[in-house]
Design a protein that fits this description.
four-stranded antiparallel beta sheet, disordered C terminus
Length: 159
């Protein structure tokens, strides 16, 4: 699941009028279902709006008829928000291979990120910037390390 807002939909039916219909998430307290009126109907259509948080959550819907035992249904939703898009990366020094005795073993990385594309991506936000230092893997003169192919992610060599 990649969108933060969803609707939990279903149908509850009983032989007698429903006395109780509620939902809860993981260990949270139960809340009545939106639009449910106790004692009015033998069936109820569930259309619960949910605002998701990252990670896996289990939602439990329970219902009870006036003279019956409660019943429940469970659904687990694993929400994984979209990641920001990488717009550009600049390395300083801009060399693709560093040599142990010739180069300083530090690389400055500057990257520009933008919100993910799509309806749930938070359209209209300005790109965010990230800057930091990494310790790259240093090659020794005469080693078989070759520069990355043109178009390959240059930051992969930095570990």
């Amino acid at each position: 699941m990649e969108v933060p807002r969803v609707s939990l939909r279903g149908r509850i039916t009983a032989q007698e009028n429903l006395a109780e219909a509620q939902r809860r998430r993981d260990g949270d307290a139960a809340t009545p279902l939106v639009g449910f009126v106790p004692g009015r109907d033998k069936a109820f259509a569930i259309d619960e709006p949910l605002v998701l948080e990252p990670g896996s959550r289990t939602y439990v819907v329970s219902a009870r008829a006036a003279d019956g035992d409660p019943g429940e249904g469970r659904v687990t939703i694993d929400y994984r928000p979209q990641l920001p898009r990488l717009e550009s990366v600049d390395l300083s020094p801009a060399k693709s291979v560093l040599y142990e005795h010739e180069d300083d073993p530090k690389v400055e990385v500057r990257a520009r990120f933008a919100p993910p594309r799509g309806p749930a991506a938070g359209q209209g936000r300005r790109p965010r910037e990230f800057g930091g230092r990494l310790r790259p893997k240093v090659s020794r003169p005469g080693s078989s390390t070759t520069p990355p192919r043109r178009g390959a992610a240059r930051g992969r060599r930095c570990r």
